[in-house]
Amino acid sequence: MLPFRFIHAADLHLDTPFSGMSGVPEQLRQYLQGSTFAALGGLVDLAISEEVDFIVISGDVYDASESSLRAQLRLREAWERLGQHGIPVYVIHGNHDPLNSRRLRLAHPPHVTIFGAKVESINATRRSDGETVAVVSGISYPSAAVMENTSLQFRRDLASKLYHIGLLHANVDGQEGHDAYSPCSLRDLQNTGYDYWALGHIHKRQVLSQSPWIIYPGNIQGRSLKETGPKGCYVVDVGENGEANPIFHELDHVRWSEIEISIERLLTEEDWKEAVEEQIEELRENSVGRLQVVRITFTGRGPLHSLLQSGRESGELLQELRRRENVRLQGSENGVGSLGSIVWLAGVKVATGMDIDTSTLLQEDSFLGELFRLSARAEGDIELLDSIVESALAPLMDNSTLRGLLKEEGANSNTKLELLRRAQELASSLLVEVDSRGGMGQ
Ligand SMILES: [Mn+2]
């Protein structure tokens, strides 16, 4: 086998609108809006500097099927730069940009191959000597919702000694939080005899298998607080024996993160404010020129719980911290260069608990003790958790808007656990309050 190198990227979601963000200064909004394009630019730079033989992109190139002319023109520019360096691109379309979308169809240059709605295979060559090094196969979504298992259409020619790469936009093994389009199992993919499965669709980076390689690279730019951490693509070196070495490269220009700050050792409001400032400055120091968007969740049990419970204090701190970043933003002469030092607070969440000793409480023969025991049981028992959350939410289900939201947000077990914990803390705060007023009639 001849050694070669390629890039595997997916879910570019070009021109994502970032419309859900409120209270963001215009300068930041524009930067956010441009971040998917900036990441695309980085992808092209990487392909050129790493001298890859080709690039594969596994679907959702555009964010919307009605993709903007801007998105198409910027993509065209990227294709052209790659063409100037003789780097071919193999692309499939996914649920966000299916083949039947009504977008303007700017023609693609000859070095860009778009796979159709049936599995096609193409020989990929090495740039240095034009030798064929791999077979690249892929299938695009004809329309937005593909419910069949398209992985079954991929079959390797067993006589071929070439390296086989499959491009598929799919939900493998029913992962939560993404539509179950083109559903297939890990076993299905392993059975095809392919060497490398270049997946797209799930935005969280994951290596599902090393033999064969089955990889979700994640998207190249995070788009919300649901897409935290480094985002980028894989540069894959395939050696003479067919062994591959995929290395992740960061491409994101905006980094999203969720940060937890425990109030456990914080005694005063001053301690609390300082703990937050410390975190923000630490993020700023490690930003490496990236705009950071963060949400802080206060956790743990401590004396500050009752103060934070109303949400007023944290709301005011949020406003103040935003104001400071705004001052920093305006103080800089040339906007874009300095955005890398901005740490924008997208929100604060209070998930703290009362300053009580839960281990004693769990033993206690009291209503509060019973409440904590039930809650602890439900944490380890999915069915019990489901039934508690379901009955608590039942009154909201009459409203169609709420029903829709709950279906979207409340479906996964993490959200249910969070609801349970919040309910436990709220109930116990109220009970203790009533208790201290003597209202329980003891
Ligand atoms: Mn996607």
UniProtKB/TrEMBL annotation:
Lineage, top ranks: Bacteria, Bacillati, Bacillota, Bacilli, Bacillales
Start and end residues of each Calcineurin-like phosphoesterase domain: 4-204
Protein name per UniProt: DNA repair exonuclease
Natural source organism: Paenibacillus anaericanus
Classification via Pfam families: Metallophos
InterPro entries: Calcineurin-like_PHP, DNA_Repair-Maintenance_Comp, Metallo-depent_PP-like, Mre11_N
SUPFAM superfamilies linked to this entry: Metallo-dependent phosphatases
Molecular function as annotated in GO: exonuclease activity
Record keywords, A-Z: Exonuclease, Hydrolase, Nuclease
